[in-house]
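hi! just following up on the protien thing from before. the input was this:
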Amino acid sequence: MAIPRRAFLKATSAAAGAAAFAGLGSGRAEADQTPGATSVRIGEARYPAGRDFAIQPQRYSAVTLTDGFWKPKVDRNASVTIPFEVQKRADGGGRGFSGGVLEAAMLSLQTHPNPTLQAQVETRVRAMAQAAGPGNGNFEIAATWFTLTGRRDLLDPAIKSAAALYDDFVSRNPPFSGGERDALNCVQLYRVTRDRRHLDLAKHYLDIRGLENSTNRSRHNQSYKPVLEQREAVGHAVNCVTLMLSLLDVGVLTGLKAYSAAAEQMWTDIVERKLYVTGGVGTTGNEGFGEPYSLPNLSAYAETCAVLMLITLNHRLFLATGDSKYIDVMERGMYNNALSGVSTSGDRFFYVNRLASAGDGRDERWQRASLECCPPNLVRFLASMPGFVYAQGTARDIYVNLYLSSETTFAVGGETLALSVKSGMPWDGTSTITTSTTADVRGAIKLRIPGWARNEVAPGGLYRYADASKGQAVVAVNGSRVDASASKLGYVTLDRVWKNGDVITVELPVAPRRVVADPRVKDARDRVAIERGPVVYCAEWPDLGAAKALDLLIDPAPALSTASEPALGGVTVIRAETRSLANPVAGPAAITLVPYHLWANRGAGEMSVWHRTREFAPGDIGPAGGFIFYVNPNAAADGWRYLEAAPFDQSSGAKWGCFRRTIDGARGTAVGTGRQNTRDMLAACTEAGTAARLCADLDVRGIGGWFLPSRDELLMMYRQLKATGAVDFGDRGVSDNFSYWASSQQTTDMAAHIDFADLGRAHFDDKDFPRRVRAIRAF
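and the predicted 3d structure came back as:
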């Protein structure tokens, strides 16, 4: 299935382990290094050469996965997804065999040899080397190819292009509005050449962004002010996170701390106010960051590209600081939002990863799109995923960041120390780490104790656990328990002489937990999300029987239980007791919650991550993202419990319709009559664009069933939403004609309307007069 795709700047995540990553250098930035407000010149900054990250990840190809969770996904990526993406480009789709797909193929071949793919890569490299032109678009691929093979086919043309770019900035110093991707490309080139001019290029692309002479200045592309003055995550989410990554890299590699400090402040803005519980970012239809605490569910964007870049950023922030809080955010994105982006079959994808779905078909996975940016990033992420598991600080500090069955070897103090990990994560919290060495080795193994194992959902306080946990991390060495209290940076450090066959046991509490959000996140008020360890769960239609995912109420008291589900490959599912909001007379029912990353693999249908903990009340956000304004006391007899107003007007001036024509029916005024009135209007009046037609044709994020409210329904909307100030209807005074049509017909010529600008008074007026329209629905 192909879908159209709004074009936007390609953004890609740097492959972990493709080049030598490592953390914040020490040293003091000079006070005069901050660029001016109007003009900067390339190469003028003074900083010592040779800086790098203090912590480096264990190379992805040096980690052998043996687990049952990640290994099948990485293997499927190599055998199915990468060849599928290559074939799409051979068929003329996307941007040709280049970019993230080519880099993913290069990375994957190191761990998953494939003669056919190897020949395709070699052919493509030869063609690129012969056709190399100006620009920095291939710098990252050139750096990766050189790092993996030692070959300069692409590196030498890249160096030549970099020289031309540098000379152009020296001679012309052209203004520029972008920079986030350009800077990152130049950083990747610098990582392998260590030519200061390439780092100067990266820094200059950042310095000229947002200056007064920059072109296309806007918040959407983060050029509304100079980068070092930016403190918020704004605009296009992928580009913004890419900008943060390039700022961090330049700050670390130059030692100019203002750059990395800007990145960290923008990161803080994300985790404290703009992060989805699934680890995703980006809430608006323009693929961007929204206002603080605006985290809608049905209209969530949470683009796959954005979380992949955020994963890379958090990993790099850890390498810069040694702080496990960044791994906490990285892990949440990896297990949830990132894996949601690709199907279990490996050949279908999501750009958008909503936290709720009405099951209308919008959330069916697709194979081809008019612009493909997320699949290339996904295949690259999965190919390099093992590079996120371990890291090494000083020559003797080894970090274990993710617990999964795997094997790897480190050089420690001139000796070799191998680790063999057996882990049941994420389904079982017990992991054992066995050391292998031919000689005793003095070293410090740093075991990350995840935030979720320390009663912290995520750094920043945007989310918290609603239920207390008695479970604590337990660490033992050769059967003897040791102090498992994590340091301020989130690690238990085992500093000792390691012998061949030593065994570390780590037990992490992975009981199901209820998560609640900061009350300022209105779309999560009076709701809980369920997670277990790093895995967020959702309710999806195949597991609910007659219940609807968007209408579920999960009581806070009953315990949550777990079970293994063979039909889903043996994953752990969660059993919960629920009730139906729309049918309160029905008794409790048991449902099954599944890992969020697995949703939409069994067809289109309702899904929800957040679940109500109490019944709706007037002013609450409804399932469609609108506003509850009436609770029906006669729900059992009437068949509906709530009235929800649409979240926006359907028109600022539409006719009621059929002026001077009597419509049979459409005369109900009481609460509960609007739906039939609307049916009567549609049956008798075929005019286009009438108030009834606008309501009946409305689809809000996949939810239909809307109608024009009756007089009393509209009056109730005014009293519960407008008069209380619960909802801003955009009242600009009487001159704005701030009055809404009701579906209640008075005469052949006239119908009822409620004047929201005049204390909700009811009036009648000619049916051909334009008035506002706000649809409602009953459920």
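The chain is about 30% helix and 20% strand.
The chain has a mean pLDDT of 91.
cheers
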